[in-house]
Design brief:
single chain; alpha/beta; two-stranded antiparallel sheet; 11 helices; 43% helix; globular
Length: 291
Amino acid sequence: MSDLTRRKWSKLALGSLAAAALPFDAVAAQKPNSKIKGVQIGAQSYSFRDRTLDEAIRGYAEVGLATCELWSGHLEPKGLDRASLRTWRLTTPLSFFTLTGEKFKKAGIDLYALNYSFRDDYTDDEINRGFEIARALGAKAITASSNVSTAKRIDPFAKRHKMRVGMHNHSNIRPNEFATPDDFAKAMEGNSEYICINLDIGHFTAAGFDAVDYLKKNHARIVTLHIKDRKKNQGENTVFGEGDTPIKEVLLALQKGGWKIPANIEYEYKGADTVAEMKKCFEFCRKALGA
């Protein structure tokens, strides 16, 4: 790396560190509590993708959500090419991520998981760095929109760091991508108990599978759930209650089973205002649980 490039990356890393250190003023003095009749409702921060990290945290507080699965887009600089993004991940001081985690603590929000999507082109150093970043943030798990084949490379690092990785499914059934129960089974076969599942019940439904049945049979390996509503047969995202996804039945199964799996709202349908729509999604979940 040339001296000019080193200076460029040092400046970018220091800028990230300064941004993480900015004070966060909580929306309300009272910390949010979104555990509803034993079921922990939270959100994937991608739901607040239209705003900055600090604004997203304020959104969590305003909606009343106490658990976060942090989308990597709220951490990483925008507009970097693949090589530059890799360099940023490997060179940004871990203190940047520690300070970011402190913002969530100050707001009373449990940063439960980091969404860091390992792909086949990730280097070993980049895979390991994902776990280091998650630890620095204070996260307990990682979720990943990964390739099925990458699981074997991830597993040694997951075992070393003793951190579970939930593989995230989409609805499009394609080779080496997660969508079907068989895809999850292939990823877990021959690997340790640290290779797990991040089940998106909306995508699972759109792909033609039964989220309730899968949850009941595989809850021990599910790290987090993504709660969204979609129609069957690769249908569109909808307002909660207007699609085919068994949101209520999934939440009631969590409650009845006593399974400590965060149910994270992922707001993806089109609405006028993110916070207003997230409040509606949260209220739907509350009512589904009889609150």
